[in-house]
Design goal:
Number of helices: 4
Number of strands: 4
CATH class: Alpha Beta
Low-confidence stretches: 90-108, 110-115
Structural class: alpha+beta
CATH superfamily: Leucine Aminopeptidase, subunit E, domain 1
Strand order of the largest sheet: 1-2-4-3
Shape: globular
CATH architecture: 3-Layer(aba) Sandwich
């Protein structure tokens, strides 16, 4: 199933980041573009894989997982999933994160520990 493959891909990225003792990692919305994987399912799967990794690897040097992509559609899908999973907030940027544009694309930022 494609969801399982995506989940495993994200987990493998995070394992490698941990192995390399990285403090942060940016992951694009894998397969949501040209391969047509539904963006909301992508956001759900990638977030769940990341949360599960954090729960199982509390002593990891990895402190920040950043979801990134080149379009607002993907970033908004991640923000919507965060709102659904973590509750809506009066100030989206404060509680949920923000979308930043830069030379490497757009990022969904969320200041929240994995605990």
């Amino acid at each position: 199933m494609e969801e399982d493959l995506l989940y495993d891909a994200v987990t493998n990225v995070l394992r490698e980041a941990k192995r390399m003792k990285m403090k942060s990692v940016s992951i694009p919305a894998i397969s949501s573009g040209i391969y047509g994987f539904p963006i909301h399912l992508c956001a759900k799967t990638m977030t769940e894989a990341s949360i599960e990794f954090c729960k199982k690897n509390t002593s990891s040097s990895l402190k920040e997982i950043r979801f990134t992509n080149i379009d607002d559609r993907a970033c908004n899908a991640f923000l919507q999933y965060f709102e659904k999973g973590f509750g809506a907030a009066h100030d989206r940027e404060d509680a949920m994160g923000s979308i930043e544009s830069g030379s490497e694309g757009k990022h969904v930022n969320r200041d929240r520990d994995c605990d």
